[in-house]
Fold this sequence. Notes:
- Chain A is an alpha+beta fold.
- Helices cover about 45% and strands about 20% of the residues of chain A.
- Chain A contains three helices and four strands, in the order H-E-H-E-E-E-H.
- By secondary structure, chain B is an all-alpha fold.
- Chain B has three helices and two strands; from the N terminus they run H-E-H-E-H.
- Chain B has helices at about 10-30, 45-60, 100-130; strands spanning about 40-45, 85.
- The longest helix of chain B is centred in the C-terminal third of the chain and has 33 residues, at about 100-130.
- Chain B is elongated, with a radius of gyration of 19 Å.
- Classes of the chains: A alpha+beta, B mainly alpha.
- The interface of A and B includes residues 20, 59, 124 and 139 of A.
Amino acid sequence: MNLLDTLQITASGLTAQRLRLQTVASNMANARTTRTEEGGPYKKQTPLLEAVRDDPFGTDLDRAMSRVEVMGVVESDDPPVMVHDPGHPDADADGYVAYPNVNVLEEMVDLMTTARTYEANANVLDVTDTMATTALEIGR
Amino acid sequence: MSVGLFDGLHQGLGQVLDLRMSQHTLTAANLANADTPGFKAKFLPFDQVLGAAVNRGKNLMLRATHERHNAGLGVNTQAPLVEEIEAAPWVADGNSVDPEREAVRLKQNATMYGGVSRGLGKRLALLKFAASNGER
């Protein structure tokens, strides 16, 4: 394990959080979308994160260090939110409109934790830089 | 046995730097996986790792060696033990990464890294001082 591996791991963390932010943005933007290409209302999207080991044959220490990867984005199966609004063009026979199963409050909380985790990873990047500089100054 | 220019202390300090860098990478991995379901936070238990290294040095002290061989401190950095933190039972996704704990470990580890590398630098400066007949 060296400095470059550390940077790779931190980069993977930053990427994962950025993708998570994108799904949050998509969910927020489509919180009231009643039409999609597949038909029906928009469904809440969640990224699937997985810890990936780079070096499965190394020592215990090498195997303990894993990057994070976004393995895909899944759609929530929760039922849509039914709102009585007979004037809406997408209302059903009983006058109910199926709105997306997106909870804006939940998305806000997700947004905040995403930002904090991104910050934490960026902080690691800073410290890695400081440590590298310190190491280069040995013997100076 | 003659003590070479770069004695066991140099090696020992270098190995401590290696271990600290490994701990740094572990912290980076923990924070990268802060949202990965089921991920267990990992760390190097430094008191044990260094303690084991010191005890190993005591028990298996190299009694005799070829004069050109480097004795070292007996620190083995090849396979240090890694400890995992179990998630609390009420955590729904089984992830045991605690950002505050990781932030403290990050800073603490970087400080120790800086201290050890400064110590190593001072030691090299001593050698330089001696090699230059006391001139700077």
